[in-house]
Target: 3'(2'),5'-bisphosphate nucleotidase CysQ
Amino acid sequence: MPESIRTTGIAATAGSVSDADLLAQTATAVRAAGSVLRERFGDVVRHQTREELMRALAANDDAVLDALRPRLALLRPDARSVEDELAGGALPSGEWWVLDPAEGNVNHLHALPEWAVTATLVRDNQPVLTAVHLPLTGETYTALAGAGAHVDGRPLHVSRTRDLGLSLVATSQARPDEDEEVVRRIGSSITAMLFDALVVRTSVPATLHLLNVAAGRIDAFWQFAGARADLLPGALLVAEAGGRISDAEGRPWSPGSESFLAAAPGVHAEAVTTLSR
Model:
């Protein structure tokens, strides 16, 4: 990611007017796909084996992608897409749709309300625009590089809190079957934040925490490891809402980084200090 994603925004890419139109159409596409996921929402689905659970998760993904893929293909015929929500690292050059058709899929299967549909356009490894739709509330969060972040057309701005001791912070499980060292680091970071922050929230998915950072409801979010589809939408939203994006040690963040931190500018430095202990 460029320097600007760590501060108060991202430099606008060429053709920003057409990108604004593209964002509006992307938002329409994720809303339509979200209606598919909403129709599949209901009672808790119990599974006897891990294999059954994985098939159910895949079925949700496939149902949404069947609605989302053709719409995005019409918008950007030459763009390729990444649909593995656990994948990380840099992408080849060109345009890519980074999709999470059911962000918070496990929540969806357990009749919990925290889930969304996301689509982010990445151009030469720079996030250009993102749309995140919450089917249960009907809200759509959008961000366009250099043009701000919004929810249903209303501007978003991160918290103005300047004291970590007064902050509500959050973290998320990076991914299933995580390396033991990463799991222990997550535990240590939560303990450190329990001492330094006002309230610590721990839940999935990451994107919904990051929406709250962009909206000023949560002051900071951090995660170790992670994936493009988890973090790119929220990173763009937070940066465009005036937040700071870095790794947990305050260095520039990219999808290949081993940690991630999104915070209001007033508490970013304190959060780095806490997470670096």
Notes: The domain at 164-276 is CATH 3.40.190.80 (D-Maltodextrin-Binding Protein; domain 2). DSSP finds seven helices and twelve strands in the chain. The radius of gyration is 18 Å. The first strand starts at residue 80 and ends at 82.
